[in-house]
Specification:
This protein is an alpha/beta fold and 493 residues long. The protein is built from 21 helices and twelve strands. 46% of the residues lie in helices and 12% in strands. Bound molecules: D-mannonic acid.
């Protein structure tokens, strides 16, 4: 990126083009009511915007202190910009720009873990939100249990002064709050995990229970871990995006995020203390989030994953290109038909409309959403996105042809080779293990059986179901012999 152009910061706001929206509230008066763990693009394009709306509405309690639990990259993007960055909304030819001002600084967990714990323990913090990706929870995807033999979890259990994991930071900060006579903060998981609130609660209680049973008891009685459904498509920012925005702004914004107009957040109505006026900010509070979550994880994310593996195997780089291929488009409808029988839609959700809207979102060419971005960490994503549908359908005696192809496409992706012969690195915590299993198997059918024995991915009951093994094997053989486009066509018949 150019060192010539100056950066977006508070001083540059007055010179921005008039069609760029920007914070109208007094940023100097903003308090830090929220700490966010895992400050990626998704948070900046979603929750940070809601808190920015709260500030714009005059409630200045909801500034966000962001934390990276890994690298300092995002701190170096945002701190020199006084926390400011541009939200770029793209839909076809339309592009709307808005500078978001809710960020109150960025800390890097590994550099100074105690500083982050102290920040989370401050009385003015009422909410801790998380987007640490599925694997950041240190939970076994198949069982939902905290992985006690994960080296970082083990380190947190022996030395909570310098936590390394998301559950570790939460436990350390809750411990400090208890000692200071404060209430717990509300923990809001914003990752695409099933029952995300219950899962992070279970991980926190499991860790706290080993460290200090009284603390675990206090968290159990006073803590709140509402379940959420969270939705907005946020492709990774590219250097081209930054260059294009620099052209519009006249200053360089290294923290920009690009996204679609659609956004949705449903939160279980259960808080430990204060919260912003979520309903007034367009956030739905619900007594039960599960029906929303299942619909979103299985329809949107399930289709996203299946389309990404199939499309990327066939050499398509972006989601809108994949759904431009007739057989992939028909395949998604077949997948959604399968999913639909497993859902109990909540009041206010009409599945037919939801499907139409999803297809339109997938077709948004201006997003340039890369299939390989979605393909990351499939072993963590498969259970909630595709396997849950398969299990429910089989329990009801129904077929799973389209769902099985999504699972088979993930297996095929683990080979690290596209249909065009291009080698790529499989970005998945189980990549080494899946590569070994694929290499050691005698034939293609054995490859499937060997991968089905991955207990961290496939619940035992499903792996042991012959109907499941057969459907996935058929789909896998069809993929190997005929390629993704033809396999998708067959799966939709
Ligand atoms: C995507 C999600 O990368 C992925 O795995 O499926 O990030 C998806 O874009 C969001 O969940 C949409 O809300």
């Amino acid at each position: 990126m150019s060192g010539q152009t100056s950066r977006l910061n508070s001083g540059a706001l007055s010179q921005l083009p008039l069609d760029v929206a920007q914070p109208k509230y007094d940023r100097a008066e903003v308090r830090t009511g929220v700490v966010h763990l895992g400050l990626g693009a998704f948070h900046r394009a979603h929750q940070a915007v809601v808190f920015d709306d709260a500030l714009a509405g005059g409630d200045l309690r909801w500034g966000v202190l962001g934390a990276s639990l890994r690298s300092p990259g995002v701190r170096d993007q945002l701190n020199p910009q006084d926390g400011l960055y541009t939200l770029v909304l793209r839909d076809g030819a339309r592009e709307d720009l808005r500078v978001i001002g809710s960020g109150c600084g960025v800390l890097v967990g590994p550099e100074d873990p105690a500083a982050l714990v102290a920040a989370m323990a401050r009385a003015e913090v009422h909410i801790v939100t998380l987007t640490v990706t599925e694997k950041g929870y240190r939970i076994d995807p198949a069982s939902g249990d905290l992985i006690f033999n994960d080296p970082d979890v083990a380190a947190d259990l022996t030395d909570l002064e310098a936590p390394r994991t998301a559950p570790g930071f939460l436990v350390a900060a809750l411990k400090a709050r208890k000692a200071a006579g404060l209430k717990p903060f509300t923990v809001i998981s914003c990752d695409n995990l099933p029952q995300n609130g219950q899962r992070i609660r279970a991980a926190v209680l499991a860790m706290a229970g080993r460290i200090d049973p009284d603390l675990a008891d206090w968290i159990r009685r006073h803590g709140a871990f509402p379940q959420t459904m969270i939705d907005r498509i946020v492709p990774a920012t590219t250097p081209d995006d930054v260059a294009r925005l620099t052209g519009r702004l006249g200053v360089e914004d290294q923290g920009m995020v690009k996204t679609e107009p659609f956004t949705q957040w449903v939160i279980e109505n259960h808080f430990a203390g204060e919260r912003p006026d979520f309903p007034g900010l367009g956030v739905q509070l619900a007594e039960s989030v599960e029906p929303w979550e299942n619909a979103k994880l299985r329809l949107l994310n399930g289709a996203h994953s299946a389309l990404s593996y199939l499309g990327a195997l066939a050499g398509f780089e972006h989601v809108h290109e994949v759904v431009g291929v007739p057989s992939f488009r028909t395949y998604v409808q077949a997948l959604w038909d399968e999913v639909e029988t497993t859902l109990e839609p909540p009041p206010g959700l009409v599945i037919a409309d939801y499907r139409n809207a999803l297809m339109a979102r997938f077709c948004n060419a201006a997003l340039m959403h890369r299939t390989r971005q979605i393909a990351i960490d499939g072993s963590q994503k498969l259970p909630q996105r595709l396997l849950a549908t398969a299990a429910d359908r089989l329990a009801a005696g129904l077929g799973i042809k389209a769902t099985a192809l999504g699972v088979a496409a993930w297996m095929r992706w683990q080979s690290g080779l596209t249909e065009g012969g291009e080698r790529f690195e499989v970005d998945d915590p189980l990549a080494a293990e899946t590569a070994r299993r694929l290499a050691e198997a005698d034939n293609e059918a054995d490859q499937v059986l060997s991968l089905l024995r991955l207990a961290a991915v496939f619940p035992q009951r499903l792996a042991a179901d012959d109907r499941f093994a057969l459907a996935v094997t058929d789909a896998y053989l069809s993929l190997c012999r005929k390629g993704a486009v033809e396999a998708a066509r067959e799966a939709a018949v």
